[in-house]
Amino acid sequence: MLNIMITTTISDFRKDIKKYFDNVTLNFETLIINRGKDTGVVIMSIEEYNSLSATHHELSSRNNEKRLDSAIEKLKSRKSFQKDLID
Question: Which of 1, 44, 50 is nearest to 20 (CA)?
Fold first, then answer.
């Protein structure tokens, strides 16, 4: 999924809030609302936020990061295996 970032001013955002929210939620776009010099607000869909939060958690400690890197390497080198779930 390609994440597209759009920007607008607070004035333009106020004029067409529904359009901007629809773009964010339906098209997985990230919206940046400029509020002046070096200030702004970011709006993203809840799905995008949850994904970022999960990634942040996975990479929040060096042990988690190493475990994830190891799993990725196993998948790439085809050294992984499949297990059936027990009912």
Answer: 44
